[in-house]
Amino acid sequence: GGSLTKLAYYSTVQHKVARVRSFDHSGKDIENEPLYEISVQEEITARLHFIKFENTYIETCLDFIKDHLVNTETKVIKATGGGAYKFKDLIEKKLGLKVDKEDVMTCLIKGCNFVLRNIPHEVFAYQRDSDTEFRFQTNHPNIFPYLLVNIGSGVSIVKVETEDKFEWIGGSSIGGGTFWGLGALLTKTKKFDELLQLASKGQHTNVDMLVKDVYGGAYQTLGLSGNLIASSFGKSTTADKEFSKEDMAKSLLHMISNDIGQLACLYAKLHNLDKIYFGGFFIRGHPVTMRTITYSINFFSKGEVQALFLRHEGYLGAIGAFLKGAEQDNPNQYSWGENYAGSSGLMSTSPDVYPMQRTRSGTFDMLEMDRLERPLVNLPLLKDPSTYIPDTVDLTDDAMARKYWLTCFEEALDGVAKRAAASQPDSGDALERAEKFRQKYWNKLQTLRQQPFAYGTLTVRSLLDTREHCLNEFNFPDPYSKVKQKENGIALKCFQSVIESLDSLGWEERQFALVKGLLAGNVFDWGAKAVSDVLESEPQFGFEEAKSKLQERPWLEDSYSQWLQRLKEGPPHKCALIFADNSGIDIILGVFPFVRELLSRGTEVILACNSGPALNDVTYSESLIVAERIAAMDTVIHSALRDEKLLLVQTGSSSPCLDLSRLDQGLAALVRERNTDLVIIEGMGRAIHTNYYAVLKCESLKLAVIKNSWLADRLGGKIFSVIFKYEVPCQ
C-alpha cells in the first residue's frame, strides 16, 4: 500500500494434543486400573499469519521473508497494491523471486469475504460519544450482497453479490488524496496523520457557512437545522481574517466526508443495499474520519443505513492476494478461527489516550487464524440465525460486569498456571512454560481492561477462549486430563447403583430424581472457583453432597411443572440433541441416566461433546470410552448404541461455552436427518453465559446450577441457585 506493507503467510504449527484411548483389558484384573490411558501427541495444524510493517521498514520486512518464509521451492511471490509496482524491482532483487501482481480490487473483495465469513466480530459501527467507541455487529450467515466503499486517493464503489461476482458501480476523484493534497496546500502540513490530528482539534464552524448564517436560524420549510453546513469554506469569501490550520483541516474533512457519504447512500439506494462497508487508507481506524463518515451516512439515509467498518480492514488486500496464491489448497472449504493468543487486537484509536500504542501498532501488528479441522455451520434449529447472539452479557457495554469478570479471571490465574504445571509432572520445563502462560494471559487481561473491544465484543466466553488459546500456545493442551480420568473412573463405579435406585421409584418421582441428578452433576465444575475450592479441600465430596447443595424448589427459574406435564401428556420426542458439560459425575451420573430415560420413552438421542479439551468438560473421545463402559453394564444403552438410536458426536468446539452458529457440519446434518425436536443445553457456560436468551424452532431445556455468587446476585438469586428453563416455540 501507500504507507504500509501487509504480509500474509501460511505455516504449519506443531501442537501438543491430549489423546485418550481404551486399555486392552483382556483377562486382566481391572479393578484398580485407570479407566483409559492418556497420551500427549504432536499434531500438526495449519495457521495463517498476517503481519503489518511500515513501508519505511520495507528492508526489514524483506529480510523477515528471506530468513523465514522463502524455501527452495518458492519461485513466485504474490503482491497487490501500489507497492507491487513501486517495490517490484527491490523485492525481486532481494528475494530472487518473481513478483506476480494481482488485481487490487479482486484481492480486496476476496479478503473482505474471508474475514466476514470467518471472524464473528469483524464488523463494527463507530460511536464516538458512547462508553466504547466500537459497536460490533453479529455476522449475518449470508454476507451478500453488500457495498464496499474504498476511499484511497479517490473513491471506488463496488457492489459485491457473490464470492466471485462483483462490479465497480461508481466512484469519485474526490477522496483521501484530495483531502491530503488540498490539506497540504492549505496548512503546509505534508503528513496525512498530522493533518488528521489538526482536524481533530479544529472548529469547522469558524470557516463553514451554516444554514443559520444564511437564514438566521433553521430553515423550517425544508426541515433543515440551523447547524447544518450550507456552504463548505463559505465564510472565507467574506471574512478578512486569517483562518487557523486546525479549522481549515476540519472544514475540509467534513466537506470530503459528506460528499463521499452522500454518494455512498445514493448508490446503496439505487441498488437496494443496506450494508455499506468502508475501507481504504482514509479510514484505516482513524476516529476522526470514521466519525464524519458515520454522521454523513446517518444524515443522508435518514438513519436507515449504517456505516460499517472492519476490524482487519488494512489486511484485506494481503489476505486476498494470499488466497489467490493458495487456490489449489482451497482455503475456503475450511472454517478458520482467530487465535487470540497470537493476535494483537484492535487498538483504541483516540490519539490522546494511548499515544505510545498508536505508534507501536502502526509499526508492527499481527493477526493469526487457525484452520479448524471441520467446517462450522449454524445449528439448523436456530429460529433466526441472523439475530442470534450467543452471549448473555456484553462486557464491552457493561462496565460493572467487565470490572468484576476481569478481576475474577486475574484472581484465578495463579491457580490455572499451577494446575497446568502440575498436569505435566514429568516435564522439565513445565514450570517455566506455565509462568510464560501466566504472563501472556495477564498481559491480555490488562489490554482488555484498557481496550475491551480489542478482539470484538468482550464476553465471559471470549475471556475463557483466550485463556484456552494461551494454554495451548505454551503446550498445555489439557491440564485437567488426569482429573477427568480419575473422576470418570469413580463415577462409573457408582453408575449401576444410581440406575437401580432410579428404577425403584414411581414414574413421577423418577422424573424429578433424574432432573435433580442432572443438576447435581452440573455442580462438578472445576471452572467455578466456589466448586474447585470444595473439590480441592474435600476429596470425598460426591453426588449426594452435591444434591444437598442445590436450592430447594421453587428454583430461581422454574418451569419444571410444565416439563413434567409435557412428558405426561405429549407424545415422545422424535429425537433429542443434548449438549453435555463436565466429565465424571456430570456426564455419567447426571446425563446418561437422563439419556436412558429418553431412550426408554422411544426418543432417539444425539449426545454432543466438545471436539477438544477445555477445563474439565467432557470431550468427544472421552465420551466414546465412557459410553462403551456404560453399555457393558446397561442393556438400554447397549442396544441404543448398537441400533444407532443413541449417537455420539462432536460439536466442533473446544470452548467451555457454546456458539450455536459455529457447530460441526456433521452434527448439523444429523440434527436435520433425525428430525430433532428437543434441544437440551446443560451447564453454566453453555446455558447461562451463552444461550440463556437463544430462541429455537423446537422445544428446549436449559438447565444449570449457578456456581458464582456475583452472577447469582445479578440474576436475583444466591449461589447454587437452579435454572430450569423449559421453552416451547411460539406457534
UniProtKB/TrEMBL annotation:
InterPro entries xrefs:
ARMT-1-like_metal-bd_sf, ARMT1-like_metal-bd, At2g17340_3_helix_bundle, ATPase_NBD, PanK_long, Type_II_PanK
Give a GO cellular-component term: nucleus
Q: Which SUPFAM superfamilies match?
A: Actin-like ATPase domain, AF1104-like
**Which Gene Ontology BP annotations are present?**
coenzyme A biosynthetic process
Which keywords belong to this entry? Acetylation, ATP-binding, Coenzyme A biosynthesis, Cytoplasm, Hydrolase, Kinase, Manganese, Metal-binding, Nickel, Nitration, Nucleotide-binding, Phosphoprotein, Transferase
On the tree of life, the source organism's domain of life is Eukaryota
**Compartment(s) where it occurs, according to its Swiss-Prot or TrEMBL record:** Cytoplasm
For the keyword Ion transport, the answer is no
**Enzymatic reactions:** (R)-4'-phosphopantetheine + H2O = (R)-pantetheine + phosphate; (R)-4'-phospho-S-sulfopantetheine + H2O = (R)-S-sulfopantetheine + phosphate; (R)-4'-phosphopantetheine sulfonate + H2O = (R)-pantetheine sulfonate + phosphate
> Which GO terms label this protein's molecular function in UniProt?
ATP binding; hydrolase activity; metal ion binding; pantothenate kinase activity
Give residue ranges for domain Damage-control phosphatase ARMT1-like metal-binding: 408-717
Its biological purpose: Phosphatase which shows a preference for 4'-phosphopantetheine and its oxidatively damaged forms (sulfonate or S-sulfonate), providing strong indirect evidence that the phosphatase activity pre-empts damage in the coenzyme A (CoA) pathway. Hydrolyzing excess 4'-phosphopantetheine could constitute a directed overflow mechanism to prevent its oxidation to the S-sulfonate, sulfonate, or other forms. Hydrolyzing 4'-phosphopantetheine sulfonate or S-sulfonate would forestall their conversion to inactive forms of CoA and acyl carrier protein.
Task: Note the subunit structure.
Answer: Homodimer. Interacts with PKM.
Q: Give the protein family.
A: In the N-terminal section; belongs to the type II pantothenate kinase family.
Q: What is this protein called?
A: 4'-phosphopantetheine phosphatase
